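In response to reviewer comment 3 from the previous cycle, which asked for concrete evidence that the modeling workflow produces usable outputs, we include below a single protein chain processed end to end. The sequence was submitted unchanged, and the resulting structure tokens are shown without manual editing.
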Amino acid sequence: MSPRVSVVVPTYNNAEVVEETVRSILASTLTDFELVVADHSSTDGTWERLQQFTADPRVRLLVTPPGGGAPANWARVTAEARGDYVKLVCGDDLIAPTCLEKQVAALDEHPTAVLCSSRRVLIDAHGERITGARGLGGLRGLVPGRVAARRAVVVGSNIFGEPASALVRRSALVAIGGWTGSEPFVIDQQTFCNLLVDGDFVALDEALASFRISASQWSVSLATLQSRQVVDFHHRLAADNPGLLSRADLVRGDTMARGMAYVRRAAYVWLAHRSHAGPGAGRQRLGSAA
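The workflow returned the following structure tokens.
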């Protein structure tokens, strides 16, 4: 019998933090889930650290061959999912014990919804909280999907949060062809908006996930590249869905996205002074070298 939820974890050089990530998932109050971890040929001992979890019948460990960056590993691990719902947790992020329980209840309550997201907090490389709850762009409760997708474009940032903040209906994800990797820096937001063109969104106004950041993840060149990909994504979404976005929406969203990239860059500079980087630098969310 298939589990209610498949939690899928793509890892790449996350040896220093992956055990904490896995334990946060295994501590979930909802127990009807499977945990599938795909390691993208890490070289830092990540695979070896994962072996301690093989005795748990809920856990499956896989190896993804080198190449293809984050989209390849995200696709690989998600293809193994068997549950009604899918949550992707990057190999250094965390979820709260009640995250699965509350998000499954929300999607069960709203059968028209294909995506549920909560707010999240940001933590540094050492696991220390550095922000309060963030996300959702002012949305609360059940929201028409196209309204939520438009809101994400207009504010110029990923209001749905990183994948650990979200739970998706697996049938809907399969129907759109899985994770959309044409703009790898925004693979999550791009996929979420594609889902919401044909389904509704549920926003839970509490922090149920933690997103780990490291000062080594960002640079001026990456800020420029990411903002360019966000703008490309905005225009692709508009072209594929006539009537969803106005010209004014695109102008405002593109302007906000360019500005937000440099606000984010400034935050990472501050973080570098605060924590001098550290664990968590080998992430699989921004097109890693693997």
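The radius of gyration is 18 Å. We consider this sufficient to address the reviewer's concern, and the full set will be provided in the supplementary archive.
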